[in-house]
Amino acid sequence: MLKNVIIGQYVPGRSFVHSLDPRSKLITIFLFMIFIFISRDPFVLSSAVLLTAAAFLTAGIPFKFFWKGIRIILIIVVLTFTLHLFMTQEGMVLLDLGWITIYSGGLIEGGLIALRLFLLIILATMLTLTTTPVDLTDGMERLMKPLKRVKVPTHELALMMSIALRFIPTLLEETQKIVKAQTARGASFSQGSLWKRVNALIPVLIPLFVSSFKRAEDLAIAMEARGYAGGEGRTKFRQLSWRTRDTMIVSFLLLFGVFSIITRIS
Amino acid sequence: MDPIIVEDLSFSYTAEQLVLQDINFRVKQGEWVAIAGHNGSGKSTLAKCLNGLLMPKSGEVITCGRNTKDKETIMDLRRRAGMVFQQPDNQLVAPTVADDVAFGLENAGIPFKEMQERVKESIHRMKLDGLEDREPHRLSGGQKQRVALAGITALRPEVIILDEATSMLDPVGRQEVQEMMRTLCREEGITIVSITHDVEEASEADRMLVMHEGRLLADDTPREIFRQQEVLVQAKLTLPLPVKLSRMLREEGIRLPQDIMSEQELVDALCEWK
Ligand SMILES: Nc1ncnc2c1ncn2[C@@H]1O[C@H](COP(=O)(O)OP(=O)(O)O)[C@@H](O)[C@H]1O
Ligand SMILES: [Mg+2]
Fold first, then answer.
1. Which residues contact A257 (CB under 8 A, 6 or more apart)?
2. β-strand B66-67 against B58-63: which pairing, if any?
3. Which of A165, A218, A235 is facing B85, going by the closest CB pair?
4. Where's the ABC transporter domain (chain B) (predicted)?
5. For residues A257 and A47, what is the distance between their CA atoms, to the nearest angstrom?
6. Are A88 and A110 in contact (CB under 8 A)?
7. What percent of chain A has pLDDT over 70?
8. CA distance B81 to B86
9. What's the farthest any 2 CA atoms get from each other in chain A?
């Protein structure tokens, strides 16, 4: 099942979306999210759909791959829709089965929320598909930089994210190794009651924990040996380049936002 | 001045037991020194004292002209004396090869332009071209250790300390890393201190230190140390195969020259044997 989750995977490419600065992508998505969540205007929402579709088409991600990847997450969308459909009691009665009544308001609310979530999921997935995790962390670090003044440890947070990125695959590999080793000793992870299966995980998690602590200690020593002494006075190897296209896309989003706020007020 | 000077060094982690006792030695500029000794004899502890990761309990360690106790110069010292550790996986910090090679340079505050050049140069020197964007977990063990070496050479060090850097590697990876060590020491004149279990690797060194229970048991050329039966027994060292084989052949009455150190020497001697 995990194989089919594509959020967090990077698909190399040279499209317009790929070439944008991670900061502008993050800002764009953030603004976009705010606007579609405050707007109820059909025109704004349909332009939002069109924009998302346009972004998707430009990014050049194979549709089949994308669809397979977000299918599972879409369950959330369906679930939210159903909940709103049954729980909202506004507008005309559309269907009355005695034990359950569906109102037109429920249909509208459910549809609205589902659409917003759907767009959000598509955009978030696309962000991670077109941006390397390293660039993404880098972009976040730069964007968070002003928070440093209010004592948010932005450098440390970014370092944590980057070390996590570095070690997640290593830890996954190690987990697989331990699972194999325990299976060879007769452990079974796919049979028996739920309780038994959960119990079978303990001999996997404990060695994993122990080795993770060892890793953390080794890594800390290695970092010290390589002259790490906090963010002060450090230079950066990775440079982000903000180009005209980034300014353009962010301005465009701002315009879209103004537009959606105007329609909301009037 | 010698790049490494250790005087009357003692160290302990806990109050009860001294892990290092009265250690004295010097390493000359451009020298290759191997440190051998069985598990727990204090080799890693000694290595960590050399670049100020651990502070002496008594005595002095002066590396690259800087006392490890001096807080002012410790960062400078660590830049001049790089260290490669045993576990390839646990010393790479960054998500890609190029980022990792740059890590030490970033810490040193090297400007971007120069950093870019140095990273490129180091990657090329360690024969890692084309792997710049590779994630560490998709590298072989030998490649990982070479990335670690690249991260150190980018800082243009005077000394490189390797703590069993080849012990977790397969034969191919071991060859790769040893070849790099040879280049760095013999061609570029970088001083190498290499802790190793591999006696064949140690036999290449200019000098060999043997540790035993926190003390320096012997300090001599590998050739000389391989002759000292008591030292070998006490430190549980086995002779390199060519050395052992030539001795056994000599005992069988086959007249070979004394002190054959490498496979090549043995092969040459056997070819000339009549
Ligand atoms: N972090 C530590 N805390 C306490 N004792 C340690 C620590 N690291 C090593 N030791 C002890 O110090 C001794 C020397 O260890 P070490 O220097 O790692 O030896 P070697 O590298 O030769 O195998 C061992 O007895 C070991 O148990
Ligand atoms: Mg050790």
1. A31, A34, A35
2. antiparallel
3. A218
4. 4-238
5. 11
6. yes
7. 97
8. 17
9. 73
> In 3D, which of B151, B162, B52 has the Cα closest to residue B106?
B151
Domain ranges, residue A259: 2-131+241-265
Residue of B17, B39, B44 best suited for mutating to test ligand 1, as the one with most atoms within 8 Å of CB: B44
Q: Residues A38, A264: contact at Cβ < 8 Å? A: yes
Residue A4 has pLDDT above 70, yes or no: no
Pocket test for ligand 1, best of B13, B46, B216 (most atoms within 8 A of CB): B13
The model's pLDDT over B139-184, given as tens digits with 9 standing for 90+, comes to 999 999 999 999 999 999 999 999 999 999 999 999 999 999 999 9
Compare all CA atoms of chain A with the CA of B74 and give the residue at the minimum distance. Answer: A227
Torsion of CA B7, B12, B15, B18, to 10 degrees: -70
User: How large is the C-alpha radius of gyration of chain B?
Assistant: 20
Judging contacts by C-beta atoms under 8 Å, the chain B residues touching residue A235 are 105-106, 109-112, 115
Instruction: Give the pLDDT confidence of B67-99 residue by residue, as tens digits.
Output: 999 999 999 999 999 999 999 999 999 989 999
Token pair of B123 as six digits: 């990657």
> What does the alpha-carbon distance between residue B223 and residue B207 come to, in Å, rounded to a whole number?
9
Beta bridge partners of B81: B159
Domain spans of chain B? 4-236, 240-274
Contact yes or no for B104 and A227 at CB 8 A: yes
Q: What is the pLDDT of residues B3-30, one digit of tens each?
A: 999 999 999 999 888 999 999 999 999 9
pTM of the model: 0.85
Inside any domain, residue A78: yes
The full 3-state SS of chain B, as one line of letters, equals CCCEEEEEEEECCCCCCCCEEEEEEEECCCCEEEEECCCCCCHHHHHHHHCCCCCCCEEEEEECCEECCCCCCHHHHHHHEEEECCCHHHCCCCCCHHHHHHHHHHHCCCCHHHHHHHHHHHHHHCCCCCCCCCCHHHCCHHHHHHHHHHHHHCCCCCEEEEECCCCCCCHHHHHHHHHHHHHHHHHCCCEEEEECCCHHHHCCCCEEEEEECCEEEEEECHHHHCCCHHHHHHCCCCCCHHHHHHHHHHHCCCCCCCCCCCHHHHHHHHHHCC
Beta partners for residue A220, in sequence order: none
Number of domain units in chain A: 1
Residue of A nearest to B134 (CA): A166
Please check whether the domain covering B4-236 is classified as CATH 3.40.50.300: yes
Whose structure tokens read 């070690």? A167
Tokens of B265: 């020497």
Best interface-test mutation with A: which of B13, B106, B112 has the largest number of A CBs within 10 A?
A: B106
Q: CA-CA distance, B244 to B259, in Å (whole number)?
A: 10
Q: Calculate how far, in angstroms, residue B141's C-alpha sits from the geometric centre of ligand 1.
A: 24
Amino acid at A249: I
